[in-house]
Amino acid sequence: MNIYYYSHQVYQLSFAIQLYKQLGGFFLVRKLNRKLRLKWYCRKSQRKNSIDSIFEKPPKVFLKNIKKLTGLKGVIISYSNTPIICSDNGCIKIFMGHGSGDKKYGGSVKTLTTYDFHFITGKKHMAKLDDSGIHIPEEKLIKIGNPRFDELFNGDINKGQYLKYLGVKDLTRKIILYAPTWKWGNGTLHLYFKNFSRQLSKDYSLIIRPHYFDRKYIPRMKKWLEKREIDNVYISNPANILTNDTMYDIAVSDLLISDTSSITYEYLITKNPIVILDNNYTDLHEMPSTMDIKTIATVYNESSSISDFVNNTFENHNPESYKSMLDECFYFNDGQSTKRITKFLQSV
């Protein structure tokens, strides 16, 4: 059976890498610039690979009109909420999405009802569907857990090699990961980049991971850091979906600073402390307190310096509360999610 991975944007396909490595398949895009961009970043990642060979050769990428697919037989796993229409009914459509955060689904939520199946990462995923006001029949909901976690659970990330790839100089320092969202979600990159770089670099190593849609600012950020001779700050480019995978940055860090990005929930896998930046964004799903990151993370509102705030967060961290929320939000957490997907696909 052929397997196709579809998304609107290149960065969303990073969620497909684990499956592709295990099952193979093909990538689908709807625009020529997406095809060229995906091929470019795959080749660029392979040339500067930090972990392993990942792909023996670049994946095949097909440019298709997803609203009028013909002659395409197999399974399409979509990481974007968009209508996919197979004109000759030759495909099975599965919705996966690209994150478990609190921001509402882009596009019409009714589109979600057009998929044949949904891969469900956990109870938080279900709560988002419920809060969206749509009903998906139970037989279409396939519990898999979060396949993004598999590499961490199974010890497949070479942390030392990744730190070397980033160029981290002082391995005795704790590492702070600052990973804000973009303007959809009131992203805080432009508000805090300079201040955090100046302050946190004095005592910590700081990895800054902009959202994919803010990647265009990376050259300017690097130039600003170089001009001011600020050391211990490292920029992770999210467009390099093979070598700068989100999970690599998560794996090597000791604390996360973010805002409304879905990384705040993925980071629970580490049980390390999380700092949430209060950005006054309100267009979010209503979540039970047991699945609301703000109930356990510390919330920064500029009442103190970020360095003092981070230090205090480390001192008062309660990893058990993070473990409880992890298990409340995500199913299984055993490193076997990709195997569950494989097993299901073999059954359809």
Model description:
This protein is α/β, with parallel strands linked by helices and 348 residues long. It has 2 domains: 3-152 and 333-347, 3-Layer(aba) Sandwich (Rossmann fold); 158-329, CDP-glycerol glycerophosphotransferase, C-terminal domain (Rossmann fold). 31% of the residues lie in helices and 14% in strands. It has 12 helices and 13 strands. The protein has helices at 17-23, 32-47, 123-131, 150-153, 159-166, 189-200, 218-227, 246-252, 263-266, 306-315, 319-329, 337-347, and strands at 3-6, 26-29, 61-63, 74-78, 91-95, 117-120, 141-143, 175-178, 205-208, 233-235, 255-258, 274-277, 298-300. The strands form 2 sheets. A 7-stranded parallel β-sheet has the order 3-2-1-4-5-6-7, with helices on both faces. It has a 6-stranded parallel β-sheet with strand order 10-9-8-11-12-13, with helices on both faces. α9 links the parallel β11 and β12 (274-277). The protein is globular. The termini are close together. The relative contact order is 0.15. The mean pLDDT is 92.
What is the CATH topology classification name of the largest domain? Rossmann fold
Question: Oligomeric status of the shown chains?
Answer: single chain
Spatial separation of the terminal alpha carbons: 9 Å
Largest sheet: 7 strands, parallel
| Structural class estimated from helices and strands | alpha/beta
By CATH, the architecture of the largest domain is named 3-Layer(aba) Sandwich
List the secondary-structure elements in sequence, H or E.
EHEHEEEEHEHHEHEHEHEHEEHHH
**What is the spatial order of strands in the main beta sheet?**
3-2-1-4-5-6-7
Number of strands: 13
- Look at the structure and give the CATH class of the largest domain: Alpha Beta
Q: How many domains comprise the coordinates?
A: 2
Give the averaged pLDDT, no decimals.
92
| Low-pLDDT windows of residues | none
CATH superfamily of the largest domain: CDP-glycerol glycerophosphotransferase, C-terminal domain
Helix content: 25-40%
